[in-house]
Every structure is written in structure tokens, then in C-alpha cells.
Amino acid sequence: MIALWLSVLIGLLSAYLCHRTAQRKGRPAVFWGTMGLLFGPFAWLVLVLLKQHNPENRESN
């Protein structure tokens, strides 16, 4: 029972951290919050390693 509550807590905390980090990096916050809920700290780690999203500076093909 403790393991269930611990995984729920980790999932919710990861969702919150992913949402906040995505907002700061200019990424879609709801998407990253959902990824945090589904994949836990792994999603946050991927998000932290991504560069700042800045669509104005994209190179045109």
C-alpha cells in the first residue's frame, strides 16, 4: 500500500516539476506535465536536457 502512495506522490511531483520547467523553457506545459505524470522523473530529466524553445530563431529550410 505504501508503494502505491509513493508512486502516486512521485508521479504528481514529477508532473508539477515538468509543467513548471516547460513553462520556463517555452515548451508546451500541459504536454510535459502529462509526460511527467506518465513517465515520472525520466520526463523531467529529458526536459531539463532540452534547449530553450525559441521559435523566432529557427533556421528556415
Report on the structure:
Helix content is 72%, strand content 0%. By secondary structure, the protein is mainly alpha-helical. The chain has one domain (2-51). α1 runs parallel beside α3 (41-49). It is elongated and about 50 Å long. The model has no long low-confidence stretch (mean pLDDT 90).
Total domain count? 1
Number of helices: 3
Largest sheet: none
| Structural class by sheet pairing and helices | mainly alpha
Rg: 14 Å
Provide the β-strand percentage band.
under 5%
What's the average pLDDT?
Answer: 90
Order of helices and strands: HHH
First-to-last CA distance: 53 Å
Instruction: Summarize the amount of helix as a percent range.
Output: over 70%
Q: How many strands appear in the DSSP assignment?
A: 0
Stretches with pLDDT under 50, minimum 5 residues = none
Shape: elongated
Keywords:
61 residues; mainly alpha; 3 helices; elongated
Summarize the structure.
With 61 residues, this protein is mainly alpha-helical. Helix content is 72%, strand content 0%.
List the helices and strands and how they pair.
Layout: H1 2-25, H2 29-39, H3 41-49
